[in-house]
């Protein structure tokens, strides 16, 4: 390709035609004549301009112009297949073959490239089975583009970015002004659609096992003659659901570890990494009397509490360090879940006979509960605003003080003043949420709704313990009423979950929260190069020079 320009007045003509080998000499002579004319300024404007009219054989090529960017692509006879044409991308971010943000005009979300979230060792094993072959320039460009997207997936997303880009229960819906890395209109693989919030189902069922054990063994509810068979059936159901959810999520860890990392950096879902171990401790506490001894082995407590303790070191360290994930920035109602693990661990420690470790965990949990409670109540100006649709997990407010009261009673073998204080706090918060029914209505069913059940059950168990210490008609009626409400809620959600999972098959929609971009890209933003075709090449270069000089002047003013 030869680009020759004639300076005639203010017109700039650009010749993009290919120079044939047999005409190179004539073309060189003509260029020398033009340079001679340019050396004589007096004669340049007096002599008429001659337009070159060179007859060339017709050359077969196809031209495509991107309607979004104005770039054109010429496909000649260089390709092996003459009929092959390069189709320009129609994405809003595509520059017709020119790289944008390291993607080289290839958007994985248009192709449904889910491999960007796959575990890297799995991709390496798959690529090793593919036979070696010569790659064309386009294939190398595709590989470079995928590598750039993989780098974008590997990098952690800032905590504030999740609040800016997401909305809905558990921050699981993408705002209309945001774009994602994967296609929205295509059904994703099942494992990518399986969130860690599914362990909330296990929390609700396992806590129900403890409730029915208390109803069967408590002297306050002895007149109901509740059989222990209900406790045994619910306990088995909770164990089965936990095993199914745990195995499924382990497959997701093995195949889509990059998606697991995205969930770990999510300000809401990071707290649910404590949920599997809390469920295991619930099952140990609520085990039927015939299947479990009176005193459990301390090894059970060590195995279940160790992961929660290490997660607390990580999460609480981020809160304390004051970095990008400080508490005032990432605090949300589900932050109580990482605190509840300490109280549940204290209850299990008392059950295995280790009272001192139980006191240690209780003190840690209570200190951080006060910090989280004050932060969520105060809502500092520097913190991110909670979305209005995050209402279901507001019930987490009542779970933490109720668990603290149960833990204190288990450690000291009495429901004394401090235990009652924590219980009264949870009871007041429970009533403050009940009188606001609009706070929990108008949402599409999702797994996040199971966040209702676990706190309601915890308050019901604490009410039964309080009724044992203060027996009266009011306390007994309150215990029965709260137990009935929590059980009814669990039954309704369990039936709804089965219907959405097996009948309507809408329980697991695309998990859009893990596919957000690291930086915001406005859909209404027009590409910088779009107006390039409206100007001549020289004016385009001049405009770029002015833009750069303006940036330098702004930088110098800022330095001053």
Compile the SSE list and pairings:
Elements: E1 7-8, E2 11-12, H1 24-39, H2 41-44, E3 62-65, E4 72-75, H3 108-111, H4 120-128, H5 137-154, H6 159-165, E5 166-167, E6 173-174, H7 199-217, H8 228-255, H9 257-265, H10 275-285, H11 298-321, H12 327-330, H13 336-352, H14 355-378, H15 396-412, H16 417-434, H17 453-469, H18 473-503, H19 537-559
Helix pairs in contact: 7-8, 7-10, 7-17, 7-18, 8-9, 10-11, 10-13, 11-13, 13-14, 13-15, 14-15, 15-16, 15-17, 16-17, 17-18
The tally of beta strands, per DSSP, is 6
Q: List low-confidence stretches.
A: 1-25, 34-46, 48-54, 61-110, 130-141, 525-542
Secondary-structure element order, as H and E?
EEHHEEHHHHEEHHHHHHHHHHHHH
Spatial sequence of strands, sheet with the most strands: 1-2
Oligomer: single chain
- Kindly report how far apart the N and C termini lie: 47 Å
Task: Give the radius of gyration.
Answer: 33 Å
Q: Outline, from the CA principal axes?
A: globular
Kindly estimate the percentage of residues that lie in beta strands according to DSSP: under 5%
- Assign a percent range to the helix content: 40-55%
Structural class, from helix and strand content?
mainly alpha
The largest β sheet comes out as: 2 strands, antiparallel
Count of helical stretches: 19
Mean pLDDT: 75
